[in-house]
Write a structure and sequence with these properties.
alpha/beta, Rossmann fold, 6-stranded parallel sheet, binds NADPH dihydro-nicotinamide-adenine-dinucleotide phosphate, disordered N terminus, 8-stranded mixed sheet, globular, Dihydrodipicolinate Reductase, domain 2
Length: about 375
């Protein structure tokens, strides 16, 4: 996967950092998420901000818009220049906050008119899952680069359609896997790639929360599935970037309370086990029935590491123990000093760099599509007919 290409190339350059002992070194690792894709022929680099239309003005959109504001000093800044919403009053208030002109506020019905708005070069799709495909494809057809939230879509076919539409329109497509651009996750990947843990034997990961019955996440037509689609995907994706391998076998179980009305349409719990070609295994849990802090723990032949929490916006913490090549016992305990909205700032910087320098994102549509196929395998193994 792309994150591993990134590690092979950029980790060499970063080897001078030595052990990951101090915050300054950790923050240097964010540069690992610099695009490494092939430079294609096309536009020359420019410092003009990349203008984004935000499609769907909910919770994650707020984080992303705040993240864009923090990119002003980046080589390729990102700016909110358009809004697409079903709620005009909310859109007007947000437009005022970010300096978006009235003429750049669209509805879901007329957003295709964005094609005539040169201030909008890209979109950030922050809608319920089942709407990702339609609005990504429409944006591509309007000539806009697409940064789409996870999960990429609610079917493998839709995910493929998104890739095809972006290719046909010659626009970039990136799935917003923000952990690919987050310092502590990258530091964990580096420890593994540098061989400090030896051969990975096994990974444990979980992520879940108790979902509000009124949330669209409880409607299968909007969500596509339950916690596996929403937060389990973080564990699935992490096991892939931590091992740098694709699953060879997956088995899963699911259970939903028959008496809890929340789980009439989507599942409550999923547990799955993955085997990778090297023999490494992973055990993951997700739920909408309990608070389950997102974390991962990796056991290798020479040591272990844990990032806990790993998937939330701040307070991430890396712990590790291993014996180095000189036989010295190393113990790490590194809180991440970065705070929200840094994930989103890094993510926006990355995509805007890809747009300006005509590069392939680290988490392109193909990365989202892979997860969609594994999610489908997990569901089918658990006896659920999703995706
Ligand atoms: P919210 O419910 O907070 O926002 C979704 C927005 O979509 C709404 O505010 C609304 O915007 C618009 N919308 C359009 N049609 C509907 C509909 N039928 N029902 C509900 N909303 C609708 O969701 P989130 O921001 O939490 O999630 C949005 C996406 O982002 C999801 O795909 C989710 O998986 C992903 N996500 C990613 C996270 C990450 O860390 N990467 C974290 C959280 C979510 P308006 O009122 O403007 O029309």
């Amino acid at each position: 996967m792309n994150l591993s290409n990134l590690s092979r190339r950029d980790f060499t350059r970063l080897s001078a950092l030595g052990t990951l002992g101090v915050a300054a070194q950790l923050s240097d690792l964010t540069s690992l998420a610099a695009p490494t894709g092939q430079v294609q022929s096309g536009p020359v680099p420019s410092s003009k901000p990349v203008g984004y239309a935000i499609i769907g003005l909910g919770r994650i959109a707020d984080h992303f818009m705040a993240g864009c504001q923090d990119t002003a000093k980046s080589p390729h800044p990102s700016k909110v220049t358009g809004l697409v919403s079903g709620h005009p009053e909310k859109a007007a208030a947000i437009a005022q906050k970010y300096g978006v002109p009235k003429s750049s506020i669209y509805t879901y019905e007329n957003m295709d008119e964005m094609r005539n708005n040169p201030a909008i070069e890209a979109v950030y799709v922050a809608l319920p899952n089942s709407m990702h495909a339609e609005y990504s494809v429409r944006s591509a057809k309007a000539g806009k680069h697409v940064l789409c939230e996870k999960p990429m879509a609610t079917s493998v076919k839709d995910a493929q359609d998104m890739i095809d539409a972006c290719k046909a329109a010659n626009v970039k497509l990136m799935i917003a896997y923000r952990c690919h651009y987050e310092t502590t996750n990258l530091a964990a990947v580096k420890l593994i790639r540098d061989g400090h843990l030896g051969q990975i034997q096994s990974i444990q990961s979980a992520f879940g929360f108790s979902c509000d019955p009124a949330d669209w996440r409880m409607k299968k037509a909007l969500a596509g599935g339950g916690p596996l689609m929403d937060v389990g995907i973080y564990s699935l994706n992490a096991t892939r970037y931590l091992t740098n391998e694709e699953p060879s076998e997956i088995v899963a179980y699911s259970h939903s309370s028959l008496t809890d009305p929340r789980f009439k349409e989507v599942e409550e719990n999923v547990v799955w086990m993955t085997k990778f070609p090297s023999g490494a295994t992973a055990t993951c849990n997700t739920t909408y029935g309990a608070q389950m802090d997102g974390y991962f723990r990796v056991y290798g032949s020479k040591g272990w590491l844990e990032v806990n929490p790993a998937f939330v916006y701040d307070g991430l913490r890396l712990k590790a123990e291993y014996t180095d090549d000189q036989g010295k016992f190393i113990q790490l305990d590194q809180p991440n000093p970065e705070k929200d909205p840094i994930h989103f700032t890094n993510e926006a910087n990355h995509f805007s760099t890809c747009v300006r320098e005509n590069r392939t994102p680290q988490s392109p549509g193909e990365e989202g599509l892979k997860d969609m196929t594994y999610l489908r395998q997990i569901y089918h193994s658990a006896g659920l007919n999703n995706l």
